[in-house]
Amino acid sequence: MPTVIGVFDDQSQAERAVNEIREAGVTDEEISIAAREDRIKADEGDEGGTGAFLNQDVTTGATTGGALGGLAGLMAGAGALAIPGIGPILAAGPIAAGLSGVAAGGLAGSLVDLGIPQDRGEYYENEVGKGSILAVVETDQRKINDVASFMRRNGARDVETH
């Protein structure tokens, strides 16, 4: 399945992109988000930010996640995983399942499993390490150009299709 990947420096931009992607008919099971845990917590005080929702207790996230929009809905049930060289990250969506074997390849290895070339996976892992929010969407060919457009329009950089 084709994959679109992009980097956001701002939670509200990522939130808007995820909302548009969902409105286009992409399901939560096709959307992955990864961000350093301390980066998310640093944004909790932002007016209108999603930080408070992103750091919900995982046990409550499972029941409340569906009622929340954008990143909050995706991340409500996210768990913290330790990535060597980065530290704790929050990950949600298909990418989170790939991170369960983190010691084998970290975030970059999980991205390779999604069809991202190794060198680009390492680049995106480094961006998360610097505090960026990574969005990865696996969807059918009909929606791929729209997804990339939604990301770019909402401030994503380094948007690629694989």
Give an overview in words.
This protein has 162 residues and is α+β, with helices and mostly antiparallel strands. The chain has one domain (3-161). 46% of the residues lie in helices and 21% in strands. The protein is built from nine helices and six strands. Strands 3-4-2-5-1-6 form a six-stranded antiparallel beta sheet, with helices on both faces. Strand 3 (79-83) and strand 4 (87-92) form a beta hairpin. The longest helix has 13 residues, at 11-23. The protein is globular. The chain starts with a strand and ends with a strand. 44% of the residues are buried. Mean pLDDT is 77; it is low at 41-68.
Q: Give me the secondary-structure category.
A: alpha+beta
Mean pLDDT: 77
Question: How much strand?
Answer: 15-25%
For the record, the count of structural domains works out to: 1
Taking strands numbered 1, 2, ... along the chain, how are they ordered across the largest sheet?
3-4-2-5-1-6
Order of helices and strands: EHEHHHHEEHHHEHE
Number of helical regions: 9
- Determine the fraction of residues in helical runs and give it as a percent range: 40-55%
List segments where confidence is low: pLDDT < 50 over at least 5 consecutive residues: 41-68
- Overall geometry comes to globular
Rg on CA atoms, Å: 14 Å
Largest sheet: 6 strands, antiparallel
